[in-house]
C-alpha cells in the first residue's frame, strides 16, 4: 500500500482500436489486430469465463480470504489481459489491518496476495481478476500484486521467512505466465508510473530478493 492509499481503478468502456488500411501488408497487419481484439472481446462477453470454484487459490498453501468486490474487477486473465509483471508492496501496517482494509468497499484498493512476517500467505483476489493495487490501470491489468506486512522504514520487519515465502510465490507466478525474472518485470510499487507511493522502500533488499526468486524459479522448472 505504501505511504498513501492507492487510487481506485475505475472502469471504462472498451475503446475501438484504430485501424490503418493501406496495401496488402497493412491489410494483413489489420487482420492480425482484429483477431487479437476479437479474442479479448470474446472473454469479456457475458457468460464467457473460465471455470471458478469458491475459495480456490492460485498458490498452493495460501489461505483464501476474499477482498471486497469493490476493490477488484472480474476478468479472465491472461486471455483478456496478458500478465507480464509482479508488483511488490509493503502494507504500512499490520497483516490484520491490511486484510481489514482490503475487505472494506470504501478503501478502493487491494492486492492479490499478502505475505505475513512469518511467511504465511493469504490470497484475497484470484490472479484471473484485476486487482486495484498499483494506482495505474494498465499496470493493474497486466500484473499480480503482492503486499508484505510491515513498514518501509523498519527493515527488521522484513524477515527471512517473509523474503523466502514471497520469493517462492513470485517464482510460481513467473513460471505460470512465463514472466522473465528480472527487475523490469518484478518491480516495486514506487516504480509504477504516476504513483505517489514509496513502497517497498529503500530497505527492501532487492538483490537478496531477486536471488531468492531466481533460485525458486529454477526449482520450479
From TrEMBL:
It comes from the Bacteria. SMART domains: Ami_2. Signal peptide: none annotated. Residues 72-201 form the N-acetylmuramoyl-L-alanine amidase domain. One of its GO terms (biological process) is peptidoglycan catabolic process. InterPro entries: Amidase/PGRP_sf (IPR036505), Amidase_domain (IPR002502), NAMLAA_amidase_2 (IPR051206). It holds the Pfam family Amidase_2. One of its GO terms (molecular function) is N-acetylmuramoyl-L-alanine amidase activity. Keywords: Cell wall biogenesis/degradation, Hydrolase. It catalyses: Hydrolyzes the link between N-acetylmuramoyl residues and L-amino acid residues in certain cell-wall glycopeptides. Its EC number is 3.5.1.28. This is N-acetylmuramoyl-L-alanine amidase. It comes from Streptomyces cupreus.
